[in-house]
Amino acid sequence: MSRRTIDIELGCDSLTPISSIFKRIERWKELTGKTIEFYNFDISRNYHRLLTLIKDFEPDTVVHFAEQRAAPYSMKSSYHKRYTVNNNLSGTNNLLAAIVESQLDVHTVHLGTMGVYGYQTAGLQIPEGYLKVFVETDEGQKELDIMYPPSPGSIYHMTKTQDALLFYFYNKNDGLRITDLHQGVVWGTTTEETEMDVVLVNRFDYDGDYGTVLNRFLVQAVVGHPLTVHGTGGQTRAFIHIRDMVKCIRMAIDNPPELWSRVEIFNQATETHSVRYLAQLVSEATGAEIRYFKNPRKEALENRLTVKNEKFMRLGLNPIKLESGIMNEVIQVADKYKHRCDKSRIICTSCWCNDMEVDCQGSDSEQVN
Amino acid sequence: MSRRTIDIELGCDSLTPISSIFKRIERWKELTGKTIEFYNFDISRNYHRLLTLIKDFEPDTVVHFAEQRAAPYSMKSSYHKRYTVNNNLSGTNNLLAAIVESQLDVHTVHLGTMGVYGYQTAGLQIPEGYLKVFVETDEGQKELDIMYPPSPGSIYHMTKTQDALLFYFYNKNDGLRITDLHQGVVWGTTTEETEMDVVLVNRFDYDGDYGTVLNRFLVQAVVGHPLTVHGTGGQTRAFIHIRDMVKCIRMAIDNPPELWSRVEIFNQATETHSVRYLAQLVSEATGAEIRYFKNPRKEALENRLTVKNEKFMRLGLNPIKLESGIMNEVIQVADKYKHRCDKSRIICTSCWCNDMEVDCQGSDSEQVN
User: Fold this and answer.
1) Is B131 in contact with A134 (Cβ distance < 8 A)?
2) Given A76, A160, A247, A311, the catalytic residue
3) Count of other CB atoms within 10 angstroms of residue A43
4) Does residue A298 belong to the interface with chain B, where contact is any CB pair within 8 Å?
5) CB of A130 within 8 Å of any CB in chain B?
């Protein structure tokens, strides 16, 4: 629940009013009769508590979400860089070391990111984790099947590429079953489960650090703020709807890799779009104005991106696409809670390197175009 | 000085009697008139002390040796895995984050390892850090210059491959100047400087965790212990003499990469040999018996290895080779201090994964051949 603590640090709050974890679990029990057991501790700092829990609980699968998950947050300052590295790497390493020490056969499902690939991929369809390459050797050209060369664009993304090396090693040395989900940007707000009761409503982040691009645009439109595009908006990203995300995690749990086979990697994304296209889509649907800001990130102005996701498609995923009209659901949720929106938190104030400090410090007025 | 603390943990000691750091610095001052300033703190835990030191000292170069450096030690237990990951990654990240925060132009020279390449390299001459590969794209075959695909064989080696991602990111995002030295196995004991006085003598590790293979064989021969070869001895590794290692670090300091050019990577190794060949060489020189033990490591029984080191050769390195007879110097040092040798520490007791526990637990008698 570090995310709630970070709200306090940032002076932010979820657009939707989220209840305490205890109320949520209680309501879930009332509605479904099912009990979710809950233990609250920091896996990056309490190795032995984690080990004891794994030994006692004997899980088939651990779904590992316990990482600091925002790129802009990871770049706010030296403190945030160090927190992200220490928290994410110690947490993942503690989990894997504990599974080895428990001597149990536990499948780890880890939430990764499409960002591990970087976006230096012109003309290349992004494969699912591994890349076939050819190298020149003394004996002629040789084919190698390598982990996709990582190119992280933030400290947060970097920790995910370092996680991949933890997975590679524990899989190879100890035979751990591991599935890494390279997830795109999530949009949408509700699932069947969260719609059952207002107490079960999801977080909805719209701030410059944790809000993801499409959800942010929709909130901006609803509260009458211009849509904030960084750079030219030519950055192309992969997306997935929140309901598909939940289905994919279920599919990953139900389909663990064979023992002693390599780390399984799925691309958990269903479509790719440029930020500019998303802004236009939201602008057309809502009449919102689009405004261009200097980009605080070090990245290409424009990129193309095509992503393979055959594995989940083969397992029966039937993706919810942006064009399906379900975008209205997000607008409705945003509209319902717009009185909770703090407009001063909309702009990203995280500067990614020293030479940008002058350019991007929360300057509402500064525009590229 | 964590290495001295680890001696206490392992019940080991350097074969050579090393003086306290204070005595060493004092003697150096008496001999040369030069003062080495010394500050003792843990960079993985004292970020602000490190930052303050960098700001006050304004170094041109930081030579970063502050990592747990033994593969067998990193594999001894869950505790040792976690210590190695936390210490090495937090330390390196703290250093880089501090340099960025200081806003100074500091060149980082990092001691890496040839082990980041892994040894899955049949037929491939190991380049200096980067590998030219070809990939199939929609627009035909495309050439990419990628970081050499890492294949770490231990937790220790894994942290060095994760360091490489830290270097990649801070170099790309913040323009830090970084040189990573992919060092082979060091042999030899003395340098011109350490020979000036007995108080300046180097550590000489011969134990199963920290002793490197050639030095260990020489001590074993001198104390009448059989040479301990793990597996078939077909493992081929890259080597460098300690005096060349010191020269290479000096060359790296004197030749920082251009500002905003990519991370500079040198292969700091001068020859490659199989463990079996080294054992034969020492056996011939000393009459020692060779004994084969089950290998506690998960690795190929036999491998070939050819390593490029053109960059240091171009800078004028004139390598000391094994055949040069300088091996006798090591034998002399080992012989001088052999009364200090604890034979019970010679065997490696670190088991690298659960299914090996029965096979390798310090079993002096168990042999492969």
Assistant:
1) no
2) A160
3) 21
4) yes
5) no
If DSSP states are collapsed to H, E and C, what string results for chain B? Answer: CHHHHHHHHHCCCCCCCCCCHHHHHHHHHHHHCCCCCCCCCCCCCCHHHHHHHHHHHCCCEEEECCCCCCHHHHCCCHHHHHHHHHHHHHHHHHHHHHHHHHCCCCEEEEEEEHHHHCCCCCCCEECCCEEEEEEEECCEEEEEEEECCCCCCCHHHHHHHHHHHHHHHHHHHHCCEEEEEEECEEECCCCCCHHHCHHHCCCCCCCCCCCCHHHHHHHHHHHCCCEEEECCCECEEEEEEHHHHHHHHHHHHHCCCCCCCCCEEEEECCEEEEHHHHHHHHHHHHCCCEEEECCCCCCCCECCCEECCHHHHHCCCCCCCHHHCCHHHHHHHHHHCHHHCCHHHCCCCCCCCHHHHHHHCCCCCCCCC
Q: What backbone phi and psi angles, to 5 degrees, belong to A132? A: -85, 125
In this predicted model, what pLDDT tens digit does every residue of A280-293 receive, in sequence order? 999 999 999 999 98
CATH code of B2-360, in short, is 3.40.50.720
Residues of chain B contacting residue A81, judged by C-beta atoms under 8 Å apart: 93, 97
List, in sequence order, every beta strand (DSSP E) within chain A.
61-64, 107-113, 125-126, 130-137, 140-147, 178-183, 185-187, 227-230, 236-241, 264-268, 271-274, 290-293, 306-307
Question: Which residue among B117, B156, B210, B337 is the active-site one?
Answer: B156
End-to-end Cα separation, chain B, in angstroms: 40
**This prediction's pTM:** 0.94
Given a contact cutoff of 8 angstroms between Cβ atoms, the answer to whether A107 and A58 are in contact is no
Counting one residue from chain A and one from chain B, the pairs whose CB atoms sit within 8 A come to 141
Asked if A231 and A213 count as a contact pair (C-beta separation under 8 A), the reply is no
Residue tagged 């992919």 (tokens): B182
Instruction: Test A352 with B173 for CB contact under 8 angstroms.
Output: yes
**Domain spans in chain A, listed from the N-terminal domain onward:** 2-360
Active site residue B113: yes
Query: Looking up tokens 């590229």, which residue turns up?
Result: A368
Task: Identify the CA nearest to B197 among candidates B360, B28, B17.
Answer: B28
CA pair distance B115, B104, nearest whole angstrom: 31
Question: How many other C-beta atoms can be found within 10 angstroms of the C-beta atom of residue A223?
Answer: 19
Neighbours of A246 (CB within 10 A): 15
Distance, CA of A51 to CA of A286 (rounded, Å): 51
pLDDT by 10s per residue, chain B, length 369? 899 999 999 999 999 999 999 999 999 999 999 999 999 999 999 999 999 999 999 999 999 999 999 999 999 999 999 999 999 999 999 999 999 999 999 999 999 999 888 755 656 789 999 999 999 887 888 899 999 999 999 999 999 999 999 999 999 999 999 999 999 999 999 999 999 999 999 999 998 899 989 989 999 999 999 999 988 999 899 999 999 999 999 999 999 999 999 999 999 999 999 999 999 999 999 999 999 988 888 787 788 888 999 999 999 999 999 887 778 889 999 999 999 999 888 887 777 777 554 333 333 333 333
Q: Name every chain A residue with its beta carbon within 8 A of the beta carbon of B168.
A: 150-152, 158
CB hemisphere CA count around B250 (13 angstroms): 9
Residue B237 CA to chain centroid, in angstroms? 12
* Chain B residues 66-125 with a CB less than 8 Å from chain A: 78, 81-82, 85-86, 89-90, 93-94, 97-98, 100-101, 103, 123-125
d(CA A182, CA A282): 26
